[in-house]
Specification:
With about 230 residues, the chain is of the alpha/beta class. It contains 8 helices and 8 strands. A hairpin with an 8-residue loop joins strand 1 and strand 2. The N and C termini lie far apart (about 45 Å).
């Protein structure tokens, strides 16, 4: 029987938007993307600023579940993204998604450690894409937050539990150069990370939180260490 808390978490308009179909965001699975409103970071290069600054959304989790019932056997998975989806209590929502037979991927900055740990313990996630925003020395500068320690705990948890996940970093040569990325590479290697590390170029859409433009000098990938597998997207 649902509690009032569960009912509230499913009926609140916390979801900014829905992408009804993607074959790119969850490796090897057809999925939809649920974009949660709000974020606890203010990354300068972020082009989802409307989502980041949104106080509420168009849809509730119940609305998404109604949609998903029409996609059983058509889609395979649901991607929970944002903003920062893990800012919310996702347990009830994920259980309902599971009941419909979908896999669940979480896109996250890793700074809501307790929520992510609970979801893992309840086996409510199948895959995580973890944003490694910057090395510790530049983390606050890039994210405008002081949450490196929370992120670090999440990264260690995922590595130590051998959960199926990836790490990824957005690169902009005037914010993070090859030396900065090498610090991340060495940190991942030291922690025992043995999966591909994805680098994605800054996308200049003309609108982002820091009002930044494309870097004047291209990122020099030849300077990167070969300690772990690096994949450019």
């Amino acid at each position: 029987m649902n509690t009032n808390k569960e009912n509230n978490s499913l009926s609140a308009k916390t979801i900014y938007d829905l992408t009804s179909f993607t074959h790119l965001d969850y490796p090897e699975h057809l999925a939809c993307i649920v974009w949660f409103s709000g974020c606890n970071m203010r990354c300068d290069y972020c082009y989802n600023k409307d989502i980041v600054f949104a106080k509420n959304g168009k849809y509730s989790p119940d609305d998404i579940l109604t949609f998903l019932k029409t996609r059983v056997n058509l889609l395979e998975a649901v991607v929970l993204s944002g903003g920062e989806a893990s800012s919310y209590d996702l347990i009830s929502f994920c259980r309902k998604i599971r009941e419909l037979g979908f896999k669940i991927k979480l896109d996250t900055n890793g700074t809501n450690f307790t929520h992510i740990k609970e979801l893992l313990e309840l086996k409510l996630l199948d895959y995580i894409a973890l944003d490694y925003k910057a090395p510790e020395s530049k983390f606050t500068q890039i994210t405008h937050s002081n949450k490196y320690d929370e992120f670090s705990k999440t990264l260690d948890l995922l590595i130590n539990t051998k959960f199926n996940f990836e790490t990824r970093t957005t690169i902009h040569n005037e914010l993070l150069d090859a030396d900065d990325i090498n610090k991340i590479i060495l940190d991942l290697k030291q922690r025992g990370y043995n999966r591909p590390y994805y680098l994605q170029e800054f996308l200049d859409t003309g609108s982002n939180i820091g009002n930044i433009t494309a870097p004047k000098k291209k990122f020099n990938s030849s300077l990167l260490l070969k300690e772990i597998e690096i994949v450019f997207r």
